[in-house]
Amino acid sequence: MMYPPPESQSLKTLLPETPILLMGSGPVPVPQEVAMASSIVISHLGETMKKIVARVQLMAQYVFQTKTTKIFGISGPSSAGMEMAVGSLLWPGRKILVLNLGTFSARFAEMARGVGAEVKEILPQGLAPIYLEQVREALEKDSFDVLTIVQGETSCGVKNIHLKEIVELAKSHGILTIVDAVCTLSTMPLPMDEWGIDIVFVGGQKGLSAVPGISLIAISENTFQFISNRTQAMPHWCLDPRRAFKFWGLGEYHYTAPVTGILALHEGLRLICEEGLEARFERHLKCSSALQNSLEAMGFSLFTPAEFRLNSVVAINNLSNVNTKELISLLIKECHVEISGAFGLDIIRVGQMGEQSRFENIERVIRALAFGYGQFGHNLDLESGLKVLNVSRDSGKK
Length: 398
Hints:
Order of helices and strands: HEHHEHEHEHEEEHEHEEHHHHEHEEHH
Number of helices: 15
CATH superfamily of the largest domain: Type I PLP-dependent aspartate aminotransferase-like (Major domain)
CATH architecture of the largest domain: 3-Layer(aba) Sandwich
Helix content: 40-55%
Shape: globular
Number of domains: 2
Structural class: alpha/beta
Distance between the termini: 72 Å
CATH class of the largest domain: Alpha Beta
Number of strands: 13
Largest sheet: 7 strands, mixed
CATH topology of the largest domain: Aspartate Aminotransferase, domain 2
């Protein structure tokens, strides 16, 4: 006897009647061009896909600021990009130095232990980035094969302001570097070749304003040659860059490629190239600064000091007697705006990545916060926040 099917219920009945503005730590709203691209299915092999892949790689070279041809899309989240990087460079007997700022930095260490590598972590001195002297001290005491660093720690809103100098120091010791640019690529400068980074990876769902479930990784030519020459068995099959090269370099079969994700990436990258990186960096900085200044004018305090504050994900101290889960649910239900909580920290987080960095979105989120906290008895100065925001918005029109 077969089990009966469940009662039919279309997706339309499950989605909210009013779309939710995604202003958390990701995913982010997508442009119409990306949404349309992600609804198309074509063959993952053949001449059309070869042309699209070539364009994705060409545009990604610009966004990563690199000349390497070893740029691969991965059917998986940003963490799959991290796993490809970690699994390619580490195995039993190899040593890694993990600069651990929080939840996502720590994931490097967890993955490295999973492939049998020896792991040492550097933790920040309080609420701060990892400083160059901390790394220098560690390298004077021990030798390492790989160093990992996030440009921005999404979980707490801290930016590693010494990333360039740390990569240079690691390079002088013959150490390979992996940079997590998940919440920062295309929102702030990260010139891969100029800074001498070996591997950079990013997800589609943040600064690129593409879709979740697809990621990009750029591997320097020398590093790819090192990976190609390894004799140790790879811990992954799908995440083996040598196999990935069959599809991304030769147009041959590896596995069924994430067609809709690749098409979405194409459009996301195209829009970045059309805007231009310098203009995009300026937009993100201007919008995030306006958000931060507006929040402070309303009566909020920001969690991270300005000198190493991450602009792409702004961390805000929660106000007293407010349950963040209840606040987030209230904002979704009443304002159709979604922000993020945090991992063990009493903060809220507002994203400023890609399509989030628009003044109309900032206005909606500060109005929503004023309403939401008002329901918990906090009388925030929305008028001052809007005044500050409008000054910033008007200055951009001149």
